Amino acid sequence: MTSLYKNNTFTLVKRIAGKKVLKNKWIYKLKFEEGKTEPTYNASHTDGKTTRFVVKGKENLVYNLKKSLYGLKQAPMQWYKKFHSFMLGQEFEKTLVYHCVYKKVLKDTSFIILLLYVDDMLLVGDNVKKINDLKNDLSRVFEMKDLGEAKHILGMQIRRERANRCLSLSQEQYILKVLKRFNMDDAKAVSCPLNVQVKLGSKNCPPSQQDIEYMSKVPYASAVGSLIYAMICTRADIGLGKDVVLEAYTDVDMAEDVDSKRSTSGYIFTFGGGAVSWQSKLKKCVALSTTEEEYIAITECCKELLWMKRIF
């Protein structure tokens, strides 16, 4: 409540004549097993006192909401509109595909990129002074806390090797947690996720009903989902079996799926010397030649390229 008063969220006004403050009625129904004594439920504040949103001497007034409250369905949109208006005033432009990513290219060709995630922000750029200026401008408009250099973001560690002028993302701790969750923390590591000579097909499925029942209890989907998150964020190598130029590479095999004879194609995009987007996927159709396979793979790569260009 202290924060709400500080930000002038409410104004005390007279209640409209003939209008009820609360129009709704709640009915709580509890079901109990037959023969058991009905229990009593008590709820109270921690101090044991009855606390009401009442100002002494103004008991007949009501609160008129002036600002969006955190938790209301329209609050996130109101917050975004406020922040977006500020960023436009700072001559930033939002990317067409990620509306929470803002970028600004300065006259000396240096740049600043801001990522907004709910009410957290990440700033990156090659002009420290301009970044600090933006942080000061933000602090004058929004109540903020500068946490310094970012160390974590969405389960990823941000690593800095200043001697080598290298900035990288790591999911080491996340992967260790996944291994422990699926009882593989003592498993032996391998140099590649799958031997290229191994061809998996329907014949590898559990043959007996006992095996099928056993496998139904294995959290396979959860394990795959955990791997997919790592693949999307930092580990392009498990998905694919220096300048600011956006580069793309694509390749495809030929009818390697032993059951459907469909092919697997993949692509990877690099920006600033690091991988930023990648995919490895079994095709939905059967190609008639290697040439057709290559054209299909390039088409999928170009689709992603057109989308990526709208970001950069």
Short structural description:
This protein is α+β, with helices and mostly antiparallel strands.
Account of the protein in words:
The protein is of the alpha+beta class and about 300 residues long. It has eight helices and twelve strands. It has a four-stranded antiparallel β-sheet with strand order 3-4-5-6, with helices on one face. It has a three-stranded antiparallel β-sheet with strand order 7-8-9. A three-stranded antiparallel β-sheet has the order 10-11-12, with helices on one face. About 5% of the residues have low confidence. It comes from Lithospermum erythrorhizon. InterPro entries: DNA/RNA_pol_sf, RVT_2. This is Reverse transcriptase Ty1/copia-type domain-containing protein.
Key features of this structure:
single chain; 312 residues; alpha+beta; 12 strands; 29% helix; Reverse transcriptase Ty1/copia-type domain-containing protein; RVT_2; DNA/RNA_pol_sf
What structural class do helix, strand and pairing data support? alpha+beta
Total beta strands: 12
Strand arrangement, major sheet: 3-4-5-6
Biggest beta-sheet profile: 4 strands, antiparallel
Rg over CA atoms, rounded to whole Å, is: 28 Å
Distance between the termini: 43 Å
Helix content: 25-40%
Give the amount of beta strand, in percent: 15-25%
Chain oligomer state: single chain
Topology at a glance:
Layout lengths: L1 H5 L3 E5 L46 E5 L9 H15 L3 E2 L6 E5 L5 E7 L2 E6 L2 H14 L10 E2 L2 E6 L4 E5 L1 H10 L27 H8 L3 H14 L2 H4 L7 E6 L11 E8 L2 E9 L7 H20 L3
Antiparallel strand pairs: 1-2, 3-4, 4-5, 5-6, 7-8, 8-9, 10-11, 11-12
